[in-house]
Description:
The chain is α/β, with parallel strands linked by helices. Among the domains are: 3-125, Methylthiotransferase, N-terminal domain (Rossmann fold, 3-Layer(aba) Sandwich); 384-441, CATH 2.40.50.140. The protein is 35% helix and 24% strand. Bound molecules: 5'-deoxyadenosine (5AD) and iron/sulfur cluster (SF4). 5'-deoxyadenosine binds at residues 50-51, 163-164, 264, 266, 304, 306, 335, 337-338, 340. 5'-deoxyadenosine (5AD) binds next to strand 15.
Amino acid sequence: MSKKLYIETYGCxxxxxxxxxVASILxxxxxxxxxxxxxxxxxxxxxxxxxxxxxRRVRNRIQEFRxxxxxxxxxxxxxxxxxxxxxxxxxxxxxxxxDLVVGPDAYRDLPKMITDTADGRQLANxxxxxxxxxADISPVRLDKNGISAFVSIMRGCDNYCAYCVVPFTxxxxxxxxxxxxxxxxxxxxxxxxxxxxxxxxxxxxxxxKDDQINMNxxxxxxxxxxxxxxxxxxxxxxxxxxxxDELIETIANTPNICNSIHLPVQSGSTTxxxxxxxxxxxxxxxxxxxxxxxxxxxxxxxTDMIAGYCGETEEExxxxxxxxxxxxxxxxxxxxxxxRPDTLAARKYKDDVDESVKARxxxxxxxLQQRLSxxxxxxxxxxxxxxLVDSVSKRSKTQMSGRTDHNKVMVFDGLDLQxxxxxxxxxxxxxxxxxxxxxxxx
Length: 442
Ligand code: 5AD
Ligand code: SF4
């Protein structure tokens, strides 16, 4: 009988993509994935450290595994990902029932580590690498729909934004061989996938140079899009300091590169951005938005925003709100600042914005975004969009759901439609979160 692996993933898309690599490495060792935790011989939790509450959530969750080990003493439990990297062997002291602690660059070592824990040892490998990109590993897809997939194109980050733990947990930036990226996408197309999202902490600094090829991100994006006109290509995440005119023009000129850019601003205030070490200011960011808006008509725009960063004054917070109004984001991920050990901010600045002030500022940001999202959706009423059908609607079993090119969710009647089909849908009404449409053409 095959051995069973249960894997739970927290955090960003990058982590989901890594879980697919892990599943692939273990499949070669005879492990099949199971959705039933009680059946598992091996439980992996792929963790996130980006904010304190992400870590606390995982800590609470893994306590539930303790009794499973009493029921099945041969069960092995592994903590993977960013929390494993950050806390290393200390996790064994704090969570005595954990067998394996494995950082994001050490997944190839998993089979050997699992064998070596058979005698009851606890083992950690948190060595970071300057080269590892898992380029040759063909990920086992964990997505359910067989329509959209994530493809990792680079790993790590060299930006060292003052608040961010990622350079410490994921190591230095390195790009993946473009041939292996194109091969992976071709394979997805052959399997019927219709959408890929190219992933990296800062995709704009993708760079590859060897004897045969010299490629930047805009060129990679174009090459991926050229594989099939039926394939939608998205990417995440971009750093505003690196988003070039060439990239913006490539998006504008290539029909199947989606007109949607996630461009995390983090704060609208130049002085806060300086303390965050973001390497751009308010004017630079607005100039990039201007370039996007004038080059790519109706481009979807989304952002990340942090409320209550070290030393943030009321005036600086107001600048964040005014930035949101000026750009008119369609969507945003919004967070309260959470101090992370060892980062520059933790060493250099005081986490001095009162918790109640942080909460109030975050509320103001969320309320404003709710209004902006609604306004943006209202502007789409009456327009016709090409929608890739990707699921049955969550709310109503008689409706289908899909995304527009500019990355908005649209729901519409159409039980006879196939998943993975493109349809033309007219937007007839909306909420702040969803466009509601009618199919006008198959
Ligand atoms: N506190 C709050 N939010 C953070 N992010 C990163 N680090 C922190 C932190 N210490 C947010 C940023 C980033 C997103 C992935 O998470 O907005 O873009
Ligand atoms: Fe992803 Fe960052 Fe969280 Fe690591 S810390 S899982 S890189 S969001």
